Amino acid sequence: MRPDASVLHLDLDAFFAAVEQRDKPSLRGKPVVVGGVGGRGVVATASYEARRYGVRSAMSTREARSRCPHAAFLTGRFHAYREASERVMEVLRSVSPLVEPLSLDEAFVDLAAAGLPDLSVPTVTEVAEEMRARVHEVTDGLTASVGIGTSKFIAKVASDLDKPDGLVVVAPGTEVELLRPMHVTVIPGVGPATAERLRRAGIHTVADLERVSLDELVRLLGKAHGAGLWSLARAEDDRPVEPDRETKSVSVEGTYDTDLTDRKVMESVLTRQAGDVARRLRASGLSGRTVSIKVRLYDFTTLSRSTTLSSPTDTASTVARLARGLLAELDTSGGVRLLGVGVSGLADWIQEDLFGDDFGDGPGDADEADDAVPEVPLPGLPARHRSGWAPGMDVVHADLGRGWVWGAGRGVVTVRFETAETPSGPVRSFADDDPALTPWRPPEPPAPDAPVTPQSPTPA
C-alpha cells in the first residue's frame, strides 16, 4: 500500500450499451442490452435504463427479456468498441506512461509516474476531473467512473462507489474504515463458492473477515487464497501498475440455442472457431503451443481438454485438427450447449512448415479452411444469424444510406436509418437477400509503412 493516493482506476460506464446509444439516436434514454440475443445468450452489458428492471451482466438473455421485454437486444459491434477504447487509452497514456488496460473499458493508471507537482488529494482529484472531461470529449459523450486510492484494490473499489459518471478519492489512512461495512464479495477472488464457504463460517462483511486469524482463513480456503484474503481485508495490496501485461491466451466460444448432437456439426463449429483464433493470433503477431477446447454438455457439466505442441503455431488448420481430435475423446452423445477453442502458451514467433509432414499444412495455407470438414449449417439458430443480419449491426443501403439492423427473420431484415450524426431515423424492411443492402464496416486505416503514391503535378 502506497503512502499517497496515486493509483487511479477508470471504468467506462455501461460501455457497450453506451456506445450503442451514442451511435443510435433512437435508443438514447431507453433500455439497451448487448450480448447474445438467442435464448441461450448471455448479457454482456446492460444500459442503466435496463438495470432499473434488474438486468445485469452475465444474466441469461432469456431472463433479461422476461425482466425487460421492451429493451433493445443487440449483438456487439466490436469495431466501434475498440475505436472508442483506443481513444480513451490515448488519453490515459497522455497523463502517465504507466497505464495497465484490463479490458476495452477499464484500466489502471499510475499517477506517481505522471510528473505531478505532488500527490495530495486535491491534486489527484483535479487530474482525474480533467481526465474524465477529456474522455467525454474524445468519445463523443461517453462517461467514466474513476476511483483513486493507495492501491489497485482500493482504486477499483472506489470506482464502483459513485456510478455512473462519478469520482471517488480514498484518502490515505481511511482504507480499512471504508472496507469494513462492505460485503466480502467486494474483495477480488471472492466468488460465489468462496462467499458461501465464508458464510457458513459466519463471515459476511470485510469486518468479519478482518477478525478471523490467518491460520483460520488458511484452514478454510487454502494457503494462497486464505493469505491473500487476509491481506486484502486489511487493505494490504502492493501490486504495481503493469503497462505491458502479457496476453495469456486467445480463445473463441459460442453457446447454441439448440443442443448440438451431430458430431459433424460440432467439428464444423470447432473449425470455424479455430479459424477465428488463428486470425486473431496473426493479427497480434502471436502464435501458441497449447490448443484447448471447452465443452459444456446438456446438463451444464463443463469439460476441457488440451494438448501441447513442441513449437508454437498460428495455422488455422493445425488448431482445428487438434481441437477436433480433443473433441473425439469426449462423450457428447447427450448434446452440447457450448463449444470453444483456445490457444495459450503464446510466443511472438513461429517455425514455418513445422507440421508439413504430420498434418499436411504448408506455409501458404494458413488462411484456408480445412477441406476435410465441410461447412455445416447449425440447427436451432435464429434466421437472422443464418442470413448474416444480426440486430444492431451496421449496414448501408445503396439509396437510403447508413443504418443498423432493427431485426431479422423469415426472409426479411428491418433497418433503422440513422447514425450518431443524424436525428432518429425511419424504419424500412427489405428482403434479406436485397443486393442494395450490405454490411457496413469502417475503412481500414492505412498501414504505417504503406507507400505514399505521389500526386501528378497539376498543369499550369
UniProtKB/TrEMBL annotation:
**Catalytic activity, as annotated:** DNA(n) + a 2'-deoxyribonucleoside 5'-triphosphate = DNA(n+1) + diphosphate
Q: Which SUPFAM superfamilies match?
A: DNA/RNA polymerases (SSF56672), Lesion bypass DNA polymerase (Y-family), little finger domain (SSF100879)
One Pfam entry name? IMS
Q: What CDD domains does the record tag this protein with?
A: PolY_Pol_IV_kappa
- Domain UmuC spans what residues? 7-191
What top-level class of enzyme does the UniProt entry assign?
A: transferase
Q: Which InterPro entries match?
A: DNA/RNA_pol_sf, DNA_pol_Y-fam_lit_finger_sf, DNA_pol_Y-fam_little_finger, DNA_polymerase-Y, DNApol_IV, IMS_HHH_1, Rev_trsase/Diguanyl_cyclase, UmuC
Compartments where found: Cytoplasm
Composition bias of kind Pro residues appears in 440-460
Which intervals of the chain are annotated as region Disordered? 419-460
What this protein is reported to do is described as: Poorly processive, error-prone DNA polymerase involved in untargeted mutagenesis. Copies undamaged DNA at stalled replication forks, which arise in vivo from mismatched or misaligned primer ends. These misaligned primers can be extended by PolIV. Exhibits no 3'-5' exonuclease (proofreading) activity. May be involved in translesional synthesis, in conjunction with the beta clamp from PolIII.
According to UniProt, the name of this protein is: DNA polymerase IV
Origin organism is Nocardioides taihuensis
What gene is this protein translated from? dinB
